[in-house]
Every structure is written in C-alpha cells, then in structure tokens.
Write a structure and sequence with these properties.
about 325 residues; homodimer; alpha+beta
Chain lengths: ~325, ~325
C-alpha cells in the first residue's frame, strides 16, 4: 500500500496542506450533466489511472449517493465537498485518503492531494503526477492563452487551489486575526474559518488559500502560499508569547486543565473537546505539555466530530471521551 | 512530642471527630468576666497541666486577640470558636492541635479533643484524662443532682458535646438529607452544615452532634453518637450506589474530571476546589480513584480555605492550585 499523505513541517500549527486541481473533459458540457455522464467520466479517469498499475492498485472508486450519511462522513473527512455530497457523483480515492479525485463537482474532475503539516510543494508534486496520468488518456479543456478552462472563472488558468489549515487560537481570540486577514488579502490569499466562520466549536482552525489561479505559474502560487503561511504562523507565535507575558498563569492554567479534562473525562461534547484540543495544541507548542505528537491532536480534532463518531448524542459523548483518553494517555504536564 | 489527634475508621466519609467538655470554675461569675479574670483562670489551668509534665510539655498557651487575623485562622482550624475569636481570651493547645483548651468562651473552660475518622471513644478517653488533670487542681461548679453547671442550660450535666464531621455530598444533593436530619433529630442529634448551612462552597460537610447533655452518661452519649453516625454513613453509601445505578457515566465523569482538574489546574478558587475535593472523596470511596489516602483529601478540604492561605485572592488561587497538585500527585484514575 502506497502512502499518498504528504508530510511537512510546523505540525504544531499547521494541521494539513491541500492542493486541488480543477479539470474538465473536452466534449462534455459544464452544466446539467446527469449521473450517467459522470459515470462515463469516472470510468475514463479510472482507466487512465490503470496506466500506472502500482498507483492504481491503491485506489478505489465509490459512488457518492446524494444526501447520504456516508457522503456526510466523507465531507467531515475533507475527502469530498459539501456540494458533491448534496448532488451525488463519484469518488476515486487512495486508501489512506491522501489523494482523492471527485467527479461531478462544479468541474467534471477535481483532484485533491492532502498532506500533514506545511507541505504545499510535496502535495503539488503528487497532484501533478496524478494529473499527468489522467491527461495522458483524457483530453482536457485547455486554452493556449487562458490555460485550463473551468466552470467558474475564479479557477481559470492553473485550476489550482492550494491551502493550508492553520491553528490560530490566540490570533482568533483578539484583533490579530482581522489584521492578518487583510494582510493575507493583499498577498492574494483568503483566510476563512474551518466549518463555518470563527465559531468556538471550530477549534480555531483557519484555512489560508490562494485567490488567484490565473497569470501565475503553479510553482509561483505554491511559493507564495508558503510565504504567506509562514507569516501567519509567526504572527500566531508572537501573539502567544505576548499572552504568556501578559498572563502566564492564566494561560498555563487553561492549557493544563484542558489536558486534565481530556485525560479523565468520561463524556464530553464536541465543543468542549475542540476547545480542550485547541489548548493542548498551544501547550505542546509552548512547552507546557509533552508526550503526544501535535499531529495526533490535529487528527483527533477531526475524529471527534459527530458524523464520524455515529450513534446518539449521548453515545457519541462517551465514545468521544474514550477516544480522547486514549489519544492523551501519554500527555504530560511540565512543571 | 506526643500525639493528641486520635485515629478512627470510616476515613473516606468521616473527616473528624470532636469531643468537647464545658467546665466552669467555682468562685467566678458566668457573665461579665474581664480579660484579667480569664488570665487568672488560664494560669490556673496551665498550672494544673504541669502536674503531668509529660503531657504539659507538649502544650503552649497563647492569648487570643479579639478580632485578629490569627484568631480567624484558629477558627478555620477549628481550634477556637468564632465567639472566642470575637471576644478574645486564651488558648492552651497541644502542638498538633489535637487537644485544645479555650478560656473565655461562654463557659470559663472548654476542653476539646480532636480525632481523624470516626473515633468518639478515643477522643472521650483523652478528654477525660485532661479534664481529670484540671479537676485535680481547680474546683469546678458541680451539682450532685444536675452535674456540671454551665452558662447555657443546653450544656448542663455532662457538659459534653460530641460530634463527627461527615462528608455527605450525595445525600445533600437530593432529598435524603432532610429525611436523615429528622431521623437524627429523633435520636437526639442535630445535623448542620459546616461553615454555614448547605451552601455549595462547604464541600458538603455536615456535623452530627448530640443535643442532649443531661440525663445520659458520657459513655451513653458516645455510644449513641457512634450508632447515629454509622446510620448516616450507611444512608450516604446507599445513596451513592443508587446514583451509580442511575447514571454511572455521569458520576464517573464528574469524579474523574475533578481528579483531572486538581492534578493540573494552575489556579483555582475555594468553591471549585471544595467541589472537586468532594468528588475525589466520592471517587476514592467508590473505587473510581486510588493512590491518595482519604484523610489527605479531608485535610486538604481544610487547608484550601482563604484565611489559612493568606495573600490576595489572586495569589491564594495560585497557592491553592499548587498545594492541590502536590496533594493529588499520586491520584490515579481507574478504568
């Protein structure tokens, strides 16, 4: 089994990196395609992957049934978009979820590569390799001057959307975030809250992604994303140090209590779990805690969400607590 | 150094046992005595103790200055009454605080012996030994028919007040407490909240003490107290098992979280500390937790009170948290 999930640095502040390429197959309209046509395209994509058997053997194709519970779980895992879950279509994904090809989204084909930590270059490289396999067999809509044609002009050109999911609890808690958002905007990037705008239940995760897909090369977009992400990471770190200077006891109290709750609770709801995980991530980065890799806490932040846990609300709260005790078993508070 | 603090059983539900004897010295009026007269009586008590040099060597005499901070701290340690702290007087106490003689309370002399756990017999024995020393040298007001004469008729006869401090959080949280109070009343005992009636900040400690001092021998009062205390302990244990049956997860969640908070918090106020300690005591008795003796948690319940910690509110919250982390360092959550 191959590994498609890429690995990068800054794992205590960067949850994931995602690179997505939009492609449309020549000969199909952009609107009003039915499930039959999407199935045709999916079959063609599947065939194209078979030209590299070592890669293809790790992929599986599944039909995404519109509005199903399975579709909702794929959304929470970030394997498909909410749009595809609603409309239905097809997903061709690697077994580790690191590479996923959606068929039936706004564009015929959306190819996504996922990484842990800050790794846009690595994700881009894998995405290019997979796109190359597809383009070897399928003719895509491409214009000499404009580049790849897409359903929405905002994706025109490279069809590339590269993003990093950043954990910015301290910037989010003060005015730092809006400042940082306008700074990112001037660099051609947008920052938006994961799972809805900045509610407490999001665990303070924010997605930084490129707004511009046209007039810049893929490599230039990737380089700029790395620069912007690094700037935001530094701003968050600085805000944390300012908080430490201002109220060291208050900060360490919240971090250590969060660790205590995750290690002991017998039931916990999503909002409290996400808040505690957020403080634990701060604590690991700032040296109040140790013993568990940040990536495991980042992964837990995904895994505790309701749809992935299943069962009634009461059952989920117990399952969530049991899971979190296991994840934080080796979490140590430093004195 | 001798040990005057007696030891008893049921330490997971009984904080302390206290036996108090009221005595008045012949030749002094019961009301309107000045500090000079109390000093005379204190000196006589002090001399009487010297007839047993091995015991006397462990005692010290201090003047209680009316309304002082030191006096307030002695009240929180249960070494003197709030009344003596307000009026001023003298305290002759063993170095471990297990035996204390107040001069200047409602009665001229109040002799108190303290024990950990349920030990009224042991406390009574020590109190009798000390009272015997005093009575060997001082003539007390005594009536052949009535027994010892006291300022208030409620103490007439034996002058004995015997009490146990019980931890009854589950009875207190439901209707069980009022039922139990009327049951105890019918047996000639009263139940009252420690530090004011039943507020959450008391940590659910209740004092069970005899109402009747006349017409019963000391031994009969002590035996009845043991019976009443045992009955209340059984009622609390039964209420806990009913709670376990009704909501095992909820109960274990609160117990385990309390342990987690005490082991990690960097600052904690009195009310939260007492509530957490209360749940930890439940957890130790019910088998959810282990590793720290209940007596240590009972003692912590005293030690975290504001007057004993000193400093500003902010400083106290930090001191309290540091102290509680040390106390609960070896507290283990059982799965």
């Amino acid at each position: 089994m191959s590994t498609f999930i890429q690995k990068g640095g800054f794992t205590d502040l960067v949850a994931t990196t995602r690179v997505r390429l939009a492609r449309n197959v020549r000969g199909y309209t952009y609107r009003g395609l039915g499930l039959g046509e999407y199935r045709e395209i999916a079959d063609k994509v599947w065939s194209a992957l078979q030209t590299a058997p070592a890669i293809a053997s790790d992929f599986a194709m599944t039909e995404v049934r519109a509005g199903s519970q399975e579709a909702a779980a794929l959304v929470e895992k970030h394997l498909i978009s909410p749009d595809l879950a609603r409309k239905g279509g097809f997903l061709i994904a690697s077994s580790d979820g690191g590479a996923a090809i959606m068929i039936g989204e706004e564009d015929h084909i959306r190819l996504q590569v996922l990484g842990s930590g800050l790794c846009p270059k690595e994700c881009m490289e894998t995405a290019r390799r997979l796109a190359g396999l597809l383009e070897g067999q399928l003719q895509m809509d491409y214009d000499e001057k404009l580049g790849y044609l897409t359903a929405c002009p905002s994706n025109l050109g490279t069809g590339l959307r590269a993003s990093v999911m950043l954990h910015l609890p301290v910037l989010a808690a003060n005015s730092g975030l809006s400042q940082m958002m306008s700074w990112a905007g001037r660099q051609g990037f947008t920052v938006r809250g994961a799972y809805g705008e900045g509610s407490k239940a999001t665990g303070a995760f924010f997605q930084l992604s490129n707004q511009i897909t046209l007039g810049l090369s893929e490599d230039a977009i990737i380089d700029r994303l790395i620069d912007a992400a690094t700037g935001v990471i530094e701003a968050e770190k600085k805000a944390r140090e300012q908080l430490r200077t201002r109220d060291e006891i208050g900060l360490s109290d919240q971090v250590c209590r969060a660790a205590g709750i995750l290690r002991t609770a017998r039931r916990i709801d999503t909002a409290e779990a996400l808040e505690c995980l957020s403080y634990v991530l701060i604590g690991l980065q700032m040296g109040y805690l140790r013993g568990v890799p940040s990536q495991d806490i980042m992964a837990a932040e995904q895994a505790v969400r309701p749809v992935l846990l299943g069962g009634t609300a009461g059952e989920r709260d117990v399952k969530r607590a049991t899971f979190l005790r296991a994840v934080t078993e080796n979490l140590e508070v430093l004195d």
